[in-house]
Amino acid sequence: MKVFLSIVIPVFNEEAGLLEGVHEVLAALEGIGQPSELVLVDDGSTDHTWSRIERFAASNGAVKGLRLSRNYGKESAIFAGLSRTIGQHVLVMDADLQHPPDAIAPMLDSYLKQGYDIIDGVKSNRGSESLWYRWCASAFNRLFSSLSGMNLSHASDFKIMSRRVVDSLLTLEERGVFFRGLTSWVGFAHGTYEFEVATRRQGQGSWSVSQLLQLGANAITSYTSSLLHLVSFLGVLFMLFAVVLGLQTLFNKLSGQATDGFTTVILLLLVIGAVIMVSLGIIGQYIARIYEEVKRRPRYIISDEI
Ligand code: UDP
Ligand code: MG
């Protein structure tokens, strides 16, 4: 039997809301009336998420369960799920119902009508995020778009993709994956679908500040090397600075009016020291990425599958 639509949902410690979520998604699939499947990826949950997923899979032939051996992060979990899909079209969404199941049918409609290869769910609002989170997210988005030339500010992981997009994504070999960035990188015709981000119904968002920072750093270093160019640019800038200041110093010395100049020396030391440190840090980030990549470890390890 040909599967028309596959839905991939990464799940991490969502036992509280999973039942409701899966029921709504299955209801939405029924409404579509095409052969479909639901791939639930347990990203190393420490609560009863996996036993819930086992129960869904046992009672419904359309549900596949995949359990990763530990928490690898949402991006890896999405790719684990994608690798198990067989549908002609694949939809990715969150488990916490922030990507509303009601939107699946209209989104699929607009996808089929528009005939694009990818429909990106675009947030028409940002849900109930705290002011601080919103500020961080917008700072990151500005940085990312100025570095990569790609605007992610309303982007989400709620997407429908055609088979060939998914297959292209799966040919990418890097370990550190950033789903939103890569779906844009693979190209193909993109359309958008606006949806309202619902508030999380159950449980807590599970990103810690350090995880978010890491996701941000990964996203940038895996998507663009422009920060490295920035380092070279700063180097050149300071070289020009050095030439001008050097000439001036020499002139002062030769004309016998060299002053104490302590302030200048201290300021220069501080500024240059800071720039060198930041530059080393940036280079270090990329070296870390290279280190991660050359190890060629798999993105995730699957411990159970039903
Ligand atoms: N998630 C995951 N692994 C993680 C963190 C989150 O698979 O390490 C899943 C989570 O279960 C949910 C989705 O990713 O389905 C979005 O997570 P969350 O709601 O915590 O993040 P946000 O809505 O803030 O993007
Ligand atoms: Mg959420």
How would you sum up this structure in a few lines?
The chain is 53% helix and 16% strand.
Could you walk me through the main structural features you see in this protein, from its secondary elements to its overall organization?
The protein has 306 residues and is of the alpha/beta class. Helix content is 53%, strand content 16%. The chain has helices at residues 15-32, 49-59, 74-83, 104-114, 131-148, 163-171, 179-185, 209-223, 226-254, 262-294, and strands at 5-11, 36-42, 63-68, 89-92, 118-123, 155-162, 190-195, 302-305. Strands 7-5-6-4-1-2-3-8 form an eight-stranded mixed sheet, sandwiched between helices. Helix 5 runs parallel beside helix 8 (209-223) and helix 9 (226-254) runs antiparallel to helix 10. The mean pLDDT is 85. Magnesium ion binds next to loops.
Sketch the major β-sheet. 8 strands, mixed
Q: Which regions contain 5 or more consecutive residues with pLDDT less than 50? A: none
Largest sheet strand order: 7-5-6-4-1-2-3-8
Helical residue percent band = 40-55%
What is the general shape? elongated
Strand content: 15-25%
Number of strands: 8
Ends apart, CA distance between termini: 19 Å
